[in-house]
Task: structure prediction
Amino acid sequence: MDERAGGRRPVIEAGSVCGLVFDFYDTLVYVDERGPRGVRQEMLAALGVPEDAFARVWREGRDRRMAGHGGSLAQQLGEALAKVGVGAPAALLKDFAAKDIAALLSAVGVYPGVRDALRELRRRGYRLGLLSNCSYTGALVLDHLSFWSFFDAVVLSYSSGLLKPDPAIYLKACRTLALAPRRCAFVGDGGFGELDAAHRLGMLALRVTQERQSPDYGSSSYADHDITSISDLLDLFPSLEAVRDSG
Result:
């Protein structure tokens, strides 16, 4: 076993894990916030709204949006503006929402090696799942990147009404993969305490640390293994067929 601060890293027994469940943002993809922030600043300037006041209200509504409440992005923006005492015409909100989404799609990048690693893990026989805390724009990003086909199960908080670290959202992903939690690994940056929750359910918890990760969503205190790219998983998870043949 490998030594680490606070304990030992468990050896991954070949064949013990048959499925990998991935976080999305800051794990498989990153967002350059400058583009979306610029669109938001343009909107606020046009309406004479202080940026810090709007940002506070927008942060407070984050979990509600990720749980699927609040309607379209235009409706969400209108609701947040109303809370800082500003009304805006529906047409203007719709226009800004369209610009906001376009800026988000332009700002999303896929971490190096992710697509190749996902393809190879599937080729090696692993069932792959995606589990993300996101608003409905998360589905738009998946469409934009043509990512749906990589996964056997996709569980998004806005459509399920569940948020990490609620155990129920992990169990939903595992059920969709038709695997017990102990047969699955969860791979993420650690936001929302997601790795701690995965560990408590018996999933193998792998933390990926990469550039451009946001510090805004908290962290996890536990990880069985630390990696620095999704490609590192290929060193940890051999072909399941080869494992069966050797057994």
